[in-house]
């Protein structure tokens, strides 16, 4: 069977379009977290997001594991979801700084959909908490178990600097140096700027692998598309001659 030049050109164009469209999809394939502050001891809101189900199946629950160094979490109430805080016992009771003994902590936050979230639709889940004061330089992981109508995806694999991103990376926050007072604020307002910059840096770091893949796919799509255009123009000129 012979393939004509116009057919090859059309196929090349189609392939280029598909690769270009695949780029943004690859970049949004993970459950991600965006903090609004990252300084040690700062009060922060962590926003988790998902835009896909489990192998195209609708999402029914999102269970977020909380690191042991964080004792208290206030989840935001989401329309269309119920939310539950799961308490776990502390191995060693701690003082809350006001003379009270804390014997339990929030170990998990579970959001359950009143109507399953369809694959391809995005939603977010915001948690208010205080980062540990002694965690500067540490990476805090927040594994997420995404349960769907059919199947589940456990986003619990550790991302290691200098290595390829795992297939199912756990959302994480890297704690930076403390700035301002213990609640992440100062009188001059510089803390707001600093923490927003920190949040942007963390978001960029956690998404870097996705960005690389997206750019490679996008560039590949453009190259293949350009080749298709050249072939199509050449074929038309030959037919005209």
From TrEMBL:
UniProt xrefs under Pfam families: DUF1775
Keyword match Cell division: no
InterPro entries: YcnI-copper_dom, YcnI-like_sf
The keyword Lipid metabolism appears for this protein: no
Range of residues in the leader sequence: 1-22
Membrane-crossing residue ranges in chain numbering: 212-235
Protein name: DUF1775 domain-containing protein
Keywords: Membrane, Signal, Transmembrane, Transmembrane helix
Residues of the YncI copper-binding domain: 30-175
């Amino acid at each position: 069977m012979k393939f004509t030049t116009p057919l090859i050109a059309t196929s090349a164009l189609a392939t280029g379009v598909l690769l270009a469209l695949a780029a943004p999809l690859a970049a949004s394939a993970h459950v991600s977290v965006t903090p609004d502050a990252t300084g040690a001891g700062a009060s922060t809101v962590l926003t988790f997001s998902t835009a896909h189900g489990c192998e195209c199946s609708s999402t029914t629950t999102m269970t977020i594991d909380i690191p042991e160094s964080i004792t208290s979490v206030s989840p935001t109430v989401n329309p269309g979801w119920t939310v539950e805080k799961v308490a776990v016992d502390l191995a060693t009771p701690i003082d809350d700084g006001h003379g009270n003994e804390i014997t339990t902590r929030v170990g998990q936050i579970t959001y359950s959909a009143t109507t399953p979230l369809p694959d391809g639709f995005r939603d977010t889940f915001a948690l208010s908490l205080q980062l540990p004061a002694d965690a500067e330089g540490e990476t805090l992981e927040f594994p997420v178990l995404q349960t769907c109508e059919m199947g589940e995806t456990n986003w619990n694999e550790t991302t290691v600097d200098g290595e390829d991103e795992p297939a199912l990376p756990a959302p994480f926050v890297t704690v930076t140096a403390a700035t301002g007072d213990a609640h992440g604020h100062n009188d001059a307002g510089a803390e707001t700027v600093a923490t927003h910059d920190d949040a942007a840096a963390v978001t960029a770091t956690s998404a870097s692998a996705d960005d690389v893949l997206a750019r490679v796919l996008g560039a590949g799509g453009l190259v293949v598309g350009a080749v298709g255009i050249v072939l199509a123009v050449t074929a038309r000129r030959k037919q005209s001659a």
